[in-house]
Amino acid sequence: MHTDRDTLFSRLWDNYCEVTPSAEDIHRLLDDTQGGEIVNDHIALRTFNLEKVNLDKLAAHFLALGYQEGGDYHFEAKKLFARHYEHPDPSAPKVFISELLVEQCSEPVQAIIHQLISQMDPAAVTADNFLYSGRHWDIDYPTYQTLLEESEYAAWVAAWGFRANHFTVSVNALSRFRTVAEINQVLKDNGYRVNSSGGEIKGSPEELLEQSSTMADRADVQFSDQTVAIPSCFYEFALRYPKPDGQLYSGFVAASADKIFESTDSC
Question: Which positions carry the signal peptide feature in this UniProt record (predicted)?
Fold first, then answer.
């Protein structure tokens, strides 16, 4: 496992940008227009809750770097469980890890997921590069489509494997922009699609967190039978509000995260 936090996040970013070129473009756009450092609020990772690759296996890489457990989140309709992690150093990005509750899926989907994960070397999960190692199994396009019919999340993990699903710009750290609405307008003015599920801005000052995101880029995936362009990753934007004690809220809002998941939908 990585012993240096900056190295891990740098590798995750590079891997993410390979299939999310819009993120680098938006990063430069904000950098050019606001003239300050772009701070990463958090990243998100996806997995299945099977023992070999469950949430705890991914989290171990961050716990080894001094991260601590934050809140738990449940997404019943999407059959997901998630937990976020924070570092005692407040400048460190937060980490949001989710897992699909495979046993709640249909039997055919369960069988597919078990077959995919059975192809993995158990030692892979402790390798330095695991969190940005991509796919460890063969899958053909019809199987991907079968998963997609039931769970966009399952299909995404099956196609992309292990990598950051998104990075997040901290709106609090921007000097020119003060609101998520301003960010959304700049994105749309420059031709980017903003996730409008549940409204373009998810959350509220009352919930101490506002978020928005682009819709995912499309990138080629080499399935075992053909290469197809499918939704890859997206860029998120988060504005945090102070709690009564004056400290910025550091958690997440499940109802908002539920809609952010849909940034990788096909339509």
Answer: none
